[in-house]
Every structure is written in structure tokens, then in C-alpha cells.
Amino acid sequence: MEPQTVFQAAPRGRFITFEGGEGVGKSTQMLRLAERLRAAGVEVATTREPGGSPRAEELREALLSGRLKRFGPLAETVVIASARADHVDRLIRPALKRGAWALCDRFIDSTRCYQGAVGGVAAETLSALEQVAARDAFPDLTFVLDAPAMVGLERARRRAGQGAAPDRFEAEDARFHERLREAFVAIARAEPGRCRLIDATQAPDTVAAHIWDTVVRRWPELEPRP
Ligand SMILES: Nc1ncnc2c1ncn2[C@@H]1O[C@H](COP(=O)(O)OP(=O)(O)OP(=O)(O)O)[C@@H](O)[C@H]1O
Ligand SMILES: Cc1cn([C@H]2C[C@H](O)[C@@H](COP(=O)(O)O)O2)c(=O)[nH]c1=O
């Protein structure tokens, strides 16, 4: 009998994303989770979108400055997808390949909500661009942090300090931000296998505890029993 070649899957880290409207606490919670994972002995890469790699950060600056707004949501979507392709190729995929966990502040769901649900870009277009940019790097788990739009915007304003100018999206009106909130909640409800909806009006420690509990239930090896 011919000896069989056995292909072993390369070890792959986990990919967790944090989503939601402005100022709901995504970066805070991403950093808190990273800390706990590192304490559990996991190599972690934290990153963000748009951005995360030097070239993608250049595109982030163009997007958030508002210079691209006049080209419309489709053009912004294509720029975000270009930034994502570079970010995934240079940072996320290499991290996952070496077995590290990648934690990302915003990813495909932000595009689906900002450019899709609110911007009006067709779902098929978004899906095609996701396949091109993310390819094999889709999130294993997504935390959707939910709070009234005004709560998040107020937190973001306080963080930026008095007199700081809002960016391209923060400057949109209250209805824009409420529609975003509805769109994020709809995604969390439509994809319960991947997404966890978290009440982000709770204290940071409480939110962090819910997140850790979810992660440990999903990957119990993080807290081995004696
Ligand atoms: N649960 C919370 N309760 C009250 N304040 C919070 C909470 N979580 C974060 N904050 C504070 O709110 C501000 C925004 O938090 P953070 O930067 O984590 O939000 P974000 O969702 O990443 O924001 P953005 O969408 O602008 O990137 C920060 O000053 C942070 O300290
Ligand atoms: C990934 C992504 C982001 N955006 C918007 C959402 C925010 O207003 C900014 C990013 O700023 P943050 O302070 O880092 O949250 O960009 C978007 O419109 N579409 C996207 O795909």
C-alpha cells in the first residue's frame, strides 16, 4: 500500500474583533482582553481599522480627514477595502499563522454598517470586497458593544478634549449614529454564532468580565482546571 501523505493544518491563532458605534469602549475593551490573554500566556497582536499597517494608516488619514467624502460611500468603501487588504496581508494573517491571537478595533462589520446600512452601498458589493480583502481572515468572534449613540459620542468628545474637531464620521448627525447603532445590533442578532452583543453602558470592569467569560467559554483551554 502507498504511504499516505498527511497534511497537517498549520496552527492558527484566533481572530477577535470589537465593533459598535463611536466611543462605546471598543479600544478600552480590546486592550483589557489583550492584557488578560497575555497573562494567560497567549501571544497577542492588537490593531485597528481603518489602519493597522503603515500604508493602511495613510488611507485612514485620508478617510477620516473627510477629503474623500465628496467621492461618496462607494469610493470610501473601496479605499477601506484597499487598506484592509494591506492590513490583513501584513499584520493579521502573519499573526494568525504564527499562532498569535489578533484583536482588532473595528473590521468588516463597521464597513457593513457605516458604508452599507447607512451609506447605501449594496450588500453584494461589500461581500465581494470582503472576500478580496479579508480572504481567509474572517473573525472567529466579534463583540458588538451597544450603547445609545449619544452616550458613545459624549464619551468620544470627552476623550478628545474641549475644542477638538470631530472627524469625518463623528461629525454626522444624531440620526446617522442611531441608524448605525440599529445596524450593529441587527448584525449581532443575525450572526449569533460569531457575535456577542454586550451592553456597553455598564462599567468598564463589568463589560470586561462579560467579555472574558465569553472568551473562556469558547476556548476553555485558557483556564485549565487542575
Ligand atoms: N464602560 C465605560 N463607561 C464609561 N466610560 C467608558 C467606558 N468604556 C470606555 N470609556 C471611556 O470612553 C472613552 C471612549 O472609549 P474608547 O476609546 O475605548 O471607545 P471606542 O469605542 O474605541 O471609541 P472610537 O469609536 O472613537 O474609537 C474613553 O475616554 C474611555 O475611557
Ligand atoms: C473600519 C471602518 C471604520 N469606519 C469609520 C468608523 C469611525 O468613525 C472611523 C474610525 O475611527 P475610530 O476612532 O478608530 O473608531 O472610521 C468606517 O466608516 N468604515 C469602516 O469599515
Automatic annotation (TrEMBL):
Residues 18-211 form the Thymidylate kinase-like domain. InterPro entries: P-loop_NTPase, Thymidylate_kin-like_dom, Thymidylate_kin_CS, Thymidylate_kinase. Keywords: ATP-binding, Kinase, Nucleotide biosynthesis, Nucleotide-binding, Transferase. Pfam families: Thymidylate_kin (PF02223). The keyword Transferase applies. The keyword Phosphoprotein does not apply. It is an enzyme of class 2 (transferase). GO terms for molecular function: ATP binding; dTMP kinase activity. GO terms for cellular component: cytosol. It catalyses: dTMP + ATP = dTDP + ADP. ATP binds at residues 20-27. It comes from the Bacteria. Its EC number is 2.7.4.9. One of its GO terms (biological process) is dTTP biosynthetic process. Phosphorylation of dTMP to form dTDP in both de novo and salvage pathways of dTTP synthesis. Belongs to the thymidylate kinase family. This is Thymidylate kinase. It comes from Methylopila jiangsuensis.
